[in-house]
Amino acid sequence: MSRWIKPDRLEPPVDPVDERAALDDRLEFQRTTLLLKCGGLKPEQLALRSVPPSRLSLLGLVRHLSAVEAWFHAYDEQPDHQFFWDYLPGSKNRSDNVDITRAADDLASYQASVARSRAAVAGRSLDDRSPGEDYTLRWIYLHMIEEYARHNGHADLLRERIDGETGE
Questions:
Q1: What SUPFAM superfamilies does the database record attribute to this sequence (predicted)?
Q2: Per-residue pLDDT tens digits for 29-48
C-alpha cells in the first residue's frame, strides 16, 4: 500500500429521525474523520511521532480505535477482536508500537473492527446493557463519540505536523 485512500465523508443530518439515527450518524462522521486525517499519507508518514516524549502517531490512533471498538463487540458475545492488532504479544502499549510494513493490515483491522461493531449492535435497543457490565448501549455510543472526537483532535495536530494540512 503506497498511500491510504481519503474517504468521502457525509455531514450528519441536522434533523435526525430519532435518537438512534443521530448517534449512528455522528459516530460514523467521527469514524470517517479519523480516516480522512490519514487519507493520502504513506505508511512512513502515518507512523511519524508527535513531539517527544509522546509516542503518538496517526497509525497508533487507528490501532487504538480498532481496539476501542470492542465496547460494541461485547454485544455479539464472540471472542475479543484481535485481527492484526497485537504484533507484540504481552506489550502494554500496543498502539504505540507501529510497524509501517503492516499499515495495510492495521487499516484492514480497523475496518473489520468497525464492521463487527455495526453488526453487533444492529437492531439492539439503546437501553440494552452490555453483557456483564452496567453500561447501556446509549452510554457506549456517547462514550465512543467522545473518544473519537478527542482522538480526532490529536489527529488534526499530527496531520498538521506531517504535511501542514489542517481543518475538517
A1: DinB/YfiT-like putative metalloenzymes
A2: 999 999 999 999 999 999 99
d(CA 121, CA 114): 11
Record the cell numbers describing residue 89, joined without a space: 504479544
Q: Give the Cα separation of 126 and 141 in Å (integer).
A: 9
CA–CA dist 27, 8 (Å, integer): 15
| Three-class HEC string of 79-97 | CCCCCCCCCCCCCCCHHHC
Give, as one character, the DSSP assignment of residue 167. Answer: -
Please give the Cα distance from 102 to 108 (Å, whole number): 10
Residues with Cβ within 8 Å of 146's Cβ and at least 6 positions away in sequence, in order, are none
